[in-house]
Design a protein that fits this description.
Strand content: 15-25%
CATH class: Alpha Beta
Radius of gyration: 19 Å
Number of domains: 1
Number of helices: 9
Largest sheet: 8 strands, parallel, barrel
Order of helices and strands: EHEHEHEHEHEHHEEEHEH
CATH topology: TIM Barrel
CATH architecture: Alpha-Beta Barrel
Number of strands: 10
Strand order of the largest sheet: 1-2-3-4-5-6-7-10
Oligomer: single chain
Distance between the termini: 62 Å
Structural class: alpha/beta
Length: 284
């Protein structure tokens, strides 16, 4: 970990800032630059409202983050006027048919949430992947719900955990989300990549959505710069964002992709607001 007083690397900065530019909180991942959490947060804090802290793989020594890292991230948040959300590890399987695998998932989730609690994250995003070796959907759902209940038993609010849509539009996870009163992270890129209706999915789950992941899509390929979206897709995205007040994370993993996406989003937002204003009759 890079210490507070140590010299950090220097990277290019975005051309435009999205900080306090929208009615929602704009976020980006903690790995835009090829550097550690601290360097990424230092460089990105002036340009966004929130950082999505990625802890994708539980096997690494910094997942969960060390108390020293959490302390430094908290200091950077105060200095930079930002908040955090946390993407929980994706290499765990809460609904797995083997009890040992499920116990490991519970332990990993509880550990990461405990370590990150001092950062007061707006949400903890969870990939709830179905066990391909279990053909019975209801059995998998029951096991997944039991594992998440075990995590919540540590005193966490169920609405602090947001389940992200992966290869479907919550078809496999809906019963778990509703029964446990969980929140939702709506990944619009994943929906568009599979040809799903973004607006319809948003309308169905609107009251549970605390976070949105946004990125460009071409065919089945996603996590591309936002300017790779078709005009039709971008129009639907803007229609949803115009109604949303939670966290929108530009989930891109390079400076070039984030820089292009931030500019694209700001340009379209200004155009949408200008067009809306032009339709309002002027007072006499």
């Amino acid at each position: 970990m890079t210490g507070e007083s140590e010299r950090t690397e220097t990277f290019p900065l975005p051309d435009k800032t999205g900080k306090k530019a929208f009615p929602f909180s704009l976020a980006c991942p903690s790995f835009v630059y090829p550097a550690d959490y601290v360097d990424n947060v230092r460089h990105l804090a002036p340009f966004v409202d929130e950082i999505e802290l990625l802890f994708f793989e539980s096997r690494f020594t910094d997942s969960p983050p060390s108390p020293a890292l959490v302390k430094e991230l908290a200091q950077l948040a105060r200095a930079g006027g930002i908040s955090y959300n946390v993407h929980l590890p994706t290499d765990i399987f809460p609904g797995h048919r083997e009890s040992a695998v499920r116990r490991k998932a519970v332990d990993v989730l509880a550990n990461v949430i405990d370590r990150c609690a001092p950062l007061a994250p707006t949400t903890f995003t969870l990939h709830l992947m179905r066990d391909p070796s279990e053909p019975d959907l209801h059995r998998w759902q029951a096991r997944a719900a039991e594992s998440i209940q075990a995590v919540l038993a540590n005193g966490y609010s169920s609405r602090r955990i947001s389940v992200e849509n992966l290869d479907d539009g919550f078809e496999t996870t809906a019963s778990v989300i509703v029964d446990l009163d969980l929140s939702i992270c709506l990944d619009m890129g994943h929906l568009m990549a599979r040809g799903a209706d973004v607006a319809a999915c948003y309308n169905r789950w609107e009251k549970r959505i605390t976070a949105v992941h946004l990125h460009g899509v071409e065919g089945a390929q996603d996590h591309l710069p936002l300017n790779r979206l078709s005009p039709a897709h971008m129009q639907k995205v803007m229609g949803v964002l115009n109604r949303f007040s939670g966290v929108v994370s530009l989930e891109l993993f390079s400076f070039e992709a984030l820089n292009a996406s931030l500019k694209h989003l700001l340009d379209h937002w200004l155009i949408m607001k200008r067009d809306a204003s032009s339709r309002i009759p002027s007072s006499l």
